[in-house]
């Protein structure tokens, strides 16, 4: 209570007035006026304290009788805090406004004020510093109030005396009321009373009888009992605090002294609150240990009093109460702090660390240590391990379910699109990497297919990666759990107050078994997430993506964005793609294979997938519980085997389908390194080598086998898989090279603006550049059937001689097998293809030659006149001209590989195919001559000479391309001629041989320019062509 409050309460101009205020003396005149105008009035009105004031006391209450109760409704905090007493109690939930008795125990102005109750309720959470400041404030207020009351009593002493005289006079008058007394005495007495009180009392028989001290009037107090009671209460309320102030002062001083002696008790709550807000764990532990130690002291005091059978002293009671209040505060704060620790522990990952003064510390270890230090009933280690298990289990399920649905959505979108054309597929196959090429090759498939492959790759990486994936979290979880099982981590954890938390440092055997079972379940969930994607058909229900995702929180399974497509994946719930109609394709039963994907992209990604899966299976198999469980270990082995078999099966199917498209690799442009070939053989070999390399990685998982522990789960490929690859190798070659015959004989129609018809070598050039390239000397006329067949024949020869044997050798070295039977089948197939193309090219020429020779020999003009013939017949020149055209066509289309340049000069080295074709044509010419000569029944000498000249001219001119078969046919011609002539003609022919040699020499000299292409090249100019 301040000086201002005191002055206001007593209507004083200040807390220390020099004299009684004049305005306060006006009450006598006001009372006289009231007697004059108010009629009858109690003669004891002077006892009514309320009538001596001009207005109600500020802050006072009014009772039911209308009189004022000088105890205030509320008052400021006597310790100087900002809140009033009742407002502080309302905040604590204490309803004292309607209970005057309880309210008075908290008001300093009331005689029922209880200091202990006041401090325990109003200042229950005050710190020592706050209480000390309040004590100083209260001491100053008490000193100031005591001084002001002393001055007030001294200044109003005369009023007190007048009040006492009035009371005595009233008592005397009331005592003699109703008795027969002398009138003089009565008047003297009344006059005396008026003189003392300053008022006149008119005689009233009714009032006298009423106030008489008789039995029926309750001895004179019946009429004034209520006013007296009210006056007594008011007097107690007004003067009681002033009279009992010293007692309360001494009591408060005793409280302050006790607080000074036990300052640390009152400081603990504030210091603990500050430490909790700052997360200063060491300070929290220090304050908590101190509080528990002090609580033990209180228990010792109480036990000692009980043991001695005595009551607690005031000092002991105060100490116990203070310690109890302190412990309630500390316990409430620690309880909330523990709740926060439990919450954070449930969300703490196994890899999160926090930097402290002692270095980096795992967050979960710090939280577990804090809980053990504070003492808990549940084992925080076990609770954290269970929370991690539940988190990983939920996260794995949610990730796998949502990831597979996202993959299926992309797969459906791709399947609902248009199937790529063969030209488009061939453009991707051209991107097969070359052996030994250091340059990165472009992606060998469409963007949509690559997107789906990347989605599957992301799914496996985030599920199986040991660094950042779900499996990595499982491995970290078990590593921590194993360290707790071994007791290594517990060495860093506290034992708590008096070792009460040491019981949580050890796990029961049943708990260890539960942890091992939990790990095996997590491993099984990861395994199922992979196996369901690779071994099961595509999912039908994709409604999971339409359900709202719960808001991300640190403990939610999807909070880390682990889904394969993350925020890029947008799905309209009203436009969910439906499964595409069945086309009978194998990939429709494979959820991981993008529709229309080619074998190059598929094998490339499947190889990466098998490395990830094999390494993950090895890491899971190395876990002790998994290694001890033969069933789980076999399931992991089965996982790798099933996925490998499924991958090989679908890859071989795509390989076979792509082999059918390999015919589109032929773009009729020359190979820059071998001008006698097109690019097709090199592209085909690159494609085959890329497929074989990828299949070898999938089948033997060589990269995965290099990882530790993978050997335990990766078995050797079965004979069935090897046989499947061997069979597909032969099929791919047969389908790819078999299509070359169709391409050579019947080229695919190309639209005018078809981007796929533009050769890759000229695709980047402008229209003018492309036109000039087509007009270049080395350009290939792809519209010419013979040119296509010749180039294809040259390609087949190169494949027979070098490229296919290289492929076979590569297969044998990659798969550690011998392809004796397969190589024989491939050679036979190539021979068939070569024979078919060879016949396709030579048959039109042979037909022309046969027709020319037959018509020439059977012509009536063929038989010479009577003179000896000296010229060959025209049909011979016509047939030779056809051979010249063939020579020219082959030489220009297929340049010699022996020449240093692509020159097609007559003196340049010939292609092996040229010798083969011309040798075959020479044989067919010889057979045609024999057939034609056999058509004549007989020959004269001149006819015999003419037939010999025709045959010999062709044989000598084409001598470079002669073969045993052709020589045999020529010999047979002469035998047939001898049969059809006379003995005389044969004898004369012998005499003409010399002349015939001269004629043939002259004829060859005349035609050496025309038939120079058939001459054998000189060794100085060029090398002799090698046979095919």
UniProtKB/TrEMBL annotation:
Q: Which organism is it from?
A: Aspergillus versicolor CBS 583.65
Q: Which GO terms describe its cellular component?
A: exocyst
Q: Where is the composition biased (Acidic residues)?
A: 20-33
Traced from the root, the source organism's taxonomic lineage reads: Eukaryota, Fungi, Dikarya, Ascomycota, Pezizomycotina
Matching entries from Pfam families are given as: Sec5
Q: Where is the stretch described as Disordered?
A: 1-84, 178-209, 421-444, 745-764
In this chain, composition skew of type Polar residues spans: 52-67
Which keywords accompany this UniProt record? Exocytosis, Protein transport, Transport
**GO process annotations (BP):** exocytosis; Golgi to plasma membrane transport; protein transport
In its UniProt entry, what is this protein called?
Exocyst complex component SEC5
Judging by the UniProt lineage, the source's domain of life is Eukaryota
Looking at the record, the residues that make up the Exocyst complex component EXOC2/Sec5 N-terminal domain are 76-1014
InterPro entries linked to this entry: EXOC2/Sec5, EXOC2/Sec5_N_dom
Describe the function of this protein: Component of the exocyst complex involved in the docking of exocytic vesicles with fusion sites on the plasma membrane.
Subunit structure comment from the entry: Component of the exocyst complex.
Spell out the Basic residues composition-biased ranges: 186-196
Similarity remark? Belongs to the SEC5 family.
């Amino acid at each position: 209570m301040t000086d201002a409050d005191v002055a206001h309460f007593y209507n004083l101009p200040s807390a220390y007035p020099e004299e009684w205020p004049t305005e306060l003396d006006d009450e006598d005149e006001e009372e006289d006026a009231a007697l004059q105008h108010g009629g009858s009035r109690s003669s004891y009105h002077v006892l009514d304290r309320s009538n001596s004031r001009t207005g109600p006391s500020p802050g006072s209450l009014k009772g039911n009788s209308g009189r004022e109760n000088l105890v205030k409704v509320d008052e400021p905090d006597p310790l100087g805090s900002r809140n009033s007493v009742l407002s502080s109690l309302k905040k604590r939930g204490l309803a004292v406004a309607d209970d005057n008795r309880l309210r008075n125990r908290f008001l300093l102005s009331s005689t029922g004020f209880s200091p202990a109750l006041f401090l325990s309720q109003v200042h229950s959470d005050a710190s020592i510093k706050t209480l000390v400041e309040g004590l100083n404030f209260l001491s100053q207020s008490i000193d100031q109030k005591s001084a002001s009351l002393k001055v007030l009593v001294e200044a109003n002493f005369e009023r007190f005396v007048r009040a006492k005289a009035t009371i005595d006079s009233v008592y005397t008058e009331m005592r003699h009321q109703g008795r027969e007394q002398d009138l003089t005495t009565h008047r003297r007495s009344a006059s005396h009373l008026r003189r003392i009180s300053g008022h006149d009392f008119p005689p009233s028989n009714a009032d006298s009888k009423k106030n008489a001290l008789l039995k029926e009037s309750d001895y004179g107090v019946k009429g004034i009992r209520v006013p007296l009671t009210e006056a007594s209460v008011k007097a107690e309320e007004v003067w009681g605090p002033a009279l009992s102030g010293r007692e309360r002062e001494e009591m408060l001083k005793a409280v302050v002294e006790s607080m000074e002696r036990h300052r640390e008790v009152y400081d603990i709550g504030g210091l603990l609150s500050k430490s909790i807000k700052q997360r200063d764990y060491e300070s929290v532990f220090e304050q908590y240990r101190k509080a528990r130690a002090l609580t033990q002291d209180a228990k010792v005091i109480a036990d000692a009093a009980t043991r001695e059978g005595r009551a607690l002293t005031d000092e002991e009671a105060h100490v116990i109460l203070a310690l109890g209040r302190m412990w309630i505060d500390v316990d409430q704060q620690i309880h909330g702090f523990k709740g926060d620790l439990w919450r954070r522990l449930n969300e703490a990952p196994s890899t999160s660390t926090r930097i402290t003064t002692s270095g980096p510390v795992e967050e979960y270890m710090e939280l577990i240590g804090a809980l053990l230090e504070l003492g808990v009933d549940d084992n925080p280690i076990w609770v954290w391990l269970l929370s991690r298990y539940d988190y990983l289990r939920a996260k794995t399920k949610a990730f796998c379910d949502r990831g597979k649905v996202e993959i299926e959505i992309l797969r459906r979108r791709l399947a609902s699109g248009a199937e790529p054309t063969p030209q488009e597929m061939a453009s991707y196959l051209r991107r097969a990497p070359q052996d030994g090429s250091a340059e990165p090759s472009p992606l060998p498939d469409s963007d949509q297919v690559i997107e789906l492959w990347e989605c599957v790759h992301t799914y496996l990486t985030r599920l199986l990666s040991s660094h950042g994936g779900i499996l990595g979290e499982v491995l970290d979880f078990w590593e921590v759990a194993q360290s707790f099982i071994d007791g290594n981590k517990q060495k860093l954890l506290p034992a708590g107050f008096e070792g009460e938390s040491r019981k949580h440092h050890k796990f029961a055997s049943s708990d260890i078994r539960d942890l091992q079972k939990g790990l095996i379940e997590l491993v099984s969930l990861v395994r199922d997430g992979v196996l369901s994607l690779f071994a099961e058909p595509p999912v039908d229900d994709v409604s999971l993506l339409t359900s709202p995702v719960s808001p991300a929180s640190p403990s939610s399974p999807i909070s880390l964005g682990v889904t394969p497509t993350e925020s890029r994946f947008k799905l309209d719930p009203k436009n969910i793609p439906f499964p595409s109609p069945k086309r009978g394709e194998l990939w429709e039963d494979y959820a991981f294979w993008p529709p229309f994907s080619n074998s190059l992209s598929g094998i490339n990604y499947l190889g990466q997938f098998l490395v990830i899966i094999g390494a993950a299976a090895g890491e899971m198999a190395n876990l002790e519980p998994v290694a001890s469980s033969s069933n789980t270990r076999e399931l992991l082995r089965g996982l790798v085997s099933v996925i490998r078999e499924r991958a090989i099966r679908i890859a071989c199917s795509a390989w076979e389908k792509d082999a059918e498209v390999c015919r589109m690799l032929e773009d009729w442009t020359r190979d820059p390194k071998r001008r006698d070939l097109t690019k097709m053989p090199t592209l085909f070999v690159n494609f085959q080598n890329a497929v074989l390399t990828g299949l070898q990685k999938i089948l033997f998982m060589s990269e995965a086998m290099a990882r530790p522990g993978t050997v335990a789960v990766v078995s050797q490929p079965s004979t069935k898989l090897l046989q499947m690859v061997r069979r597909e190798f032969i099929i791919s070659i047969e389908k790819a090279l078999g299509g070359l015959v169709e391409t050579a004989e019947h080229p695919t129609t190309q639209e005018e603006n078809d981007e796929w018809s533009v050769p890759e070598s000229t695709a980047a050039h402008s229209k003018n550049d492309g036109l000039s390239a087509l007009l270049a000397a080395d350009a290939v006329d792809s519209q010419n059937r013979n040119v296509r067949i010749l180039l294809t024949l040259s390609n087949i020869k190169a494949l027979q001689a070098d490229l296919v044997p290289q492929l076979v050798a590569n297969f044998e070295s990659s798969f550690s097998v011998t392809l004796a039977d397969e190589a024989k089948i491939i050679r036979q197939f190539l021979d068939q293809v070569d024979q078919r193309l060879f016949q396709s090219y030579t048959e039109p020429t042979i037909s022309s030659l046969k027709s020319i020779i037959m018509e020439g020999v059977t012509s009536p003009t063929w038989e010479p006149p009577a003179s000896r013939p000296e010229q060959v017949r025209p049909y011979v020149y016509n047939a030779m001209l056809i051979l010249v055209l063939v020579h020219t066509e082959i030489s220009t289309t297929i340049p010699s590989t022996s020449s240093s340049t692509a020159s097609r000069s007559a003196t340049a080295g010939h292609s092996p195919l040229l010798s083969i074709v011309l040798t075959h044509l020479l044989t067919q010419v010889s057979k045609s001559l024999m057939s034609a000569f056999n058509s004549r029944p007989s020959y004269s000498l001149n006819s015999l000479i003419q037939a010999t000249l025709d045959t010999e001219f062709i044989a000598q001119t084409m001598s470079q391309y002669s073969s045993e078969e052709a020589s045999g046919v020529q010999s047979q011609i002469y035998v047939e001629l001898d049969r059809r002539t006379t003995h005389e003609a044969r004898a004369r022919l012998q005499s003409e041989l010399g002349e015939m040699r001269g004629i043939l020499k002259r004829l060859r000299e005349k035609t050496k320019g025309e038939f120079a292409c058939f001459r054998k090249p000189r060794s100085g100019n060029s090398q002799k062509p090698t046979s095919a």
